[in-house]
Design brief:
By secondary structure, the chain is an alpha+beta fold. The protein has one domain (8-55). 18% of the residues lie in helices and 26% in strands. It has 1 helix and 3 strands. It has one helix spanning 44-55, and strands spanning 8-13, 20-25, 34-38. Strands 1-2-3 form a 3-stranded antiparallel beta sheet, covered by helices on one side. The longest helix has 12 residues, at 44-55. The chain starts with 7 loop residues before the first strand and ends in a 10-residue tail after the last helix. The model has no long low-confidence stretch (mean pLDDT 81).
């Protein structure tokens, strides 16, 4: 899956070792390229929370992590 602006890509492949999900972000003017590799046992709630945090606009009260 890709975000609407194509900056975040989420993939699931259970057949590679160790298998699981990869979340990849493209470099833009402010941020460098990055990726996260999550194992097959990572719950979908964790993946959803991570992708929501990456693709939704930040709240005015959100900390700058």
């Amino acid at each position: 899956m890709e975000s609407p602006d194509r900056t975040v890509h989420v993939a699931y492949d259970p057949y590679v070792i160790p298998g699981g999900r990869t979340i990849h972000g493209r470099a833009d003017g402010l941020n460098g390229e990055w990726s996260v590799h999550l194992g097959r046992q990572t719950s979908v709630e964790i993946v959803a929370g991570l992708t929501d945090g990456l693709t939704r606009p930040r709240s005015a009260h959100a900390p700058n992590v």
